[in-house]
Amino acid sequence: MNIYTKKQRWKQILLLAAILIGVGSLWYTNRLVGHIEITERQKMELWAEATRLVIGAPLETELAFPFSVIESNTHIPVILTDSVGEILGSKNIDTTKVKHPEAYMQKQLRHAREENDSLIISLGPENFQLLFYRDSILLRKLSLFPYVQLGVIILFILVSYIAFSVSRKAEQNEVWTGMSKETAHQLGTPISSLMGWMELIK
Q1: Which of 16, 36, 115, 198 has its C-alpha lying 20 to 30 A from 169's C-alpha?
Q2: Residue of higher predicted confidence among 109 and 11
Q3: Residue 34 is part of which domain span?
Q4: What is the mean pLDDT of the chain?
Q5: pLDDT in the model for residue 120
């Protein structure tokens, strides 16, 4: 097996390894994202139930546990609306740094509708509120991670391919240089002899 065949095989191995890493990463990350989505949904269901207890409880009811559940959510953006979609409150959504808080909240509500199904908080006959929530920042970043990793892998393959190609071209140039020197050496001997004979003839 010559050196060029070996390098071609290395290119194929690198490509196969990159594909396997990319596919494996996508599969694992998608599973992890799915698990986190389920966990966040369960947390929001518990949050909705705690909110229902707080809103509908009599004044003398002990509400320490429901309040602790509500306060424990520190990373999932939540929007609470009435039955017709008017925003009643929110959590983990910062509106202090935007010029138009109301428009910003409406935008966040649209995103929440697109990302997850709402939860109904039943407060009595024909009386309910809706809980909307967005994916956490962790979940959103994790969803993008495989594509970033694929980009890095593609860049690695490209750099490796260029490096192999440059190395092969350099070796070819060295071979041609060596052959040129050898040819010049082989031609030099008879030419020198001919020049010597020509001097003798003169």
Answers
A1: 16
A2: 109
A3: 7-142
A4: 81
A5: 94
Say whether pLDDT at 73 is over 80: yes
3-state secondary structure of 109: helix
State the alpha helices, DSSP H only, in the chain.
Answer: 3-56, 64-72, 101-115, 137-201
Look at phi and psi of residue 52 and say left if phi exceeds 0, alpha if psi is from -120 to 50, else beta. alpha
Q: Which residues are CB-contacts of 87 (< 8 A; sequence separation ≥ 6)?
A: 79, 80, 81, 105, 106, 109
Q: Which residues of 45-84 are buried (b: 16+ CB within 10 A; e: fewer)?
A: eebbebbbbeeeeeeeeeeeebeebbeebeebbbbbbeee
162 found inside a domain: no
Residue 11 lies in a domain: yes
Question: 């602790």: which residue's tokens?
Answer: 68
Please give the Cα distance from 130 to 120 (Å, whole number): 5
Is residue 134 very low, low, confident or very high in pLDDT (cuts 50, 70, 90)? very high
What CATH number does residue 14 fall under?
A: 3.30.450
Distance (Å, whole) CA 25 – CA 154: 14
- Looking at the structure of the chain, the number of domains it has is 1
Q: Bigger pLDDT: 90 or 18?
A: 90
The predicted model gives 62-79 an average pLDDT of 90
The tokens for 200 are 């003798």
Percent of the chain topping pLDDT 90: 36
Q: Which residue has the tokens 């006959």?
A: 125
Q: Which of 14-18, 48-52, 108-112 shows the lowest per-residue confidence on average (mean pLDDT)?
A: 14-18
